Amino acid sequence: MWDSQRIADLVRGELTGDSQVRASGCCIDSRGVKAGEIFFALVGERTDGHDYIEGAWQKGASVVIGEKERLEHRREVRVPEGKALIRVESGLAAMQTLAQAWRKELGAKVVAITGSNGKTTTKDMVAAVLSEKYRTHKNLENQNNELGLPMTILKATENTEVLILEMGMRGLGQIAFLCDIACPDIGVITNIGTTHMELLGSQEAIARAKWELIEALPETGSAVLNGEDEWSVKQAEHDSHRTFFYGLEGRFHEPDLWGRSLTPFGTLGTCFQAEMGHGDRSLVPLGEKQAASSVTVRLPLPGEHNVLDALAALSVGVLLNVSLEEGCRGLAAMELSRMRLELQPGPGGSTLISDVYNANPTSMKASLQVLKERGGESTLAILGEMYELGQSCRAGHYEVGQTVADLGISELITVGPLAEEIARGALEKGLSPQRIHSFPEREGAIKKARELLAGLNQGTWVLIKASRGMKMEEVTRALRKD
What we know:
Number of domains: 3
Strand content: 15-25%
Largest sheet: 9 strands, mixed
Mean pLDDT: 91
Distance between the termini: 49 Å
Structural class: alpha/beta
Radius of gyration: 24 Å
Helix content: 25-40%
Number of strands: 22
């Protein structure tokens, strides 16, 4: 990447030690430092990276970036021979500045992804599609904030051709800030839902916050949007960027790329037909003409929501001259980030669907559809609380309960006080009270799940889902242990 003097100049820091030592990549945990990396001594809630500077050098870090104020109150740091220390006002700001500079120097295309649901899965799918033709680099897991995104960029190697960056947000201006670092060429919005209602207060504010991604695109940039999402279509009506829509029915906008003829295949897969639309194709190609206008996709994931995410990924591929056939191959072999629709063996021959990274009403209902589709007449839903729903909190939980009843889920276990609204919704929509079991904590839910699975049919399917703060992976771990 750069030598230490160049790094110090970029961050306007004070350099001590070797001014010509080379560094590339970055790390914030001294235990995981690799030779030649930059170690950022950041201050966290529980730890202070300045306590581990010497350890980082010993592990192989070439350059350490520390904060002046923190270093002033410590014994003098002795910089080893062939190493460098750069003092800055803010370690995080220095990281963001370096990431912005590295993104521009790389010259790679940048695909940025946001949305209320499915952005991490879509990020993984986009990487799978584009990796068929390009050298790609993406966020690990959902490292999508003001710390994770610059770290992702700095870890990209010099030969990276496409950066795929997930962007999260918790308020207005946050996606715009991330875009200022990443400078995206293509923006993908999976949908605009009610997640973060608690923080932003209205659907309109959520839409404005998400749309910061599209507003940040250059004039030549492209927006990839969900034609089944009303708010995305509304926002696009007032935007001048090139738009590419995908969808299953075209409820709010005719898709440029359709998904048709969805059928289950294998244990947890979906087979569907991806077809290019027949509208004004002048909006679509940025380069070569597609080799085929229709392909059969065998996606190793269930449900319409995952098919929509796959269509988003294939759409990005179309815009970057990856054929539908190539994208199809990539999707068939894709790898997902952890804790999303993981299949685990459960007690009594049951199958656990552990989808515990996050939850909101839309994703909860989609996962329940998958549970019913796969489990048929023998299903158990273990559902915990959903956070950040604001004034729609009670209604959101209640609607999920109604979906449980409408789908005819065999047994329902809820975890946490908020999730009692799920139970109420299921009860008032007609699910038998004998099939509804509510618990304030995970331990009671685990015990009841074991009892139920001992009496249900072999081959029962179990969905475990809640917001991340509920730590429902403990439920998965306990049942899998059985």
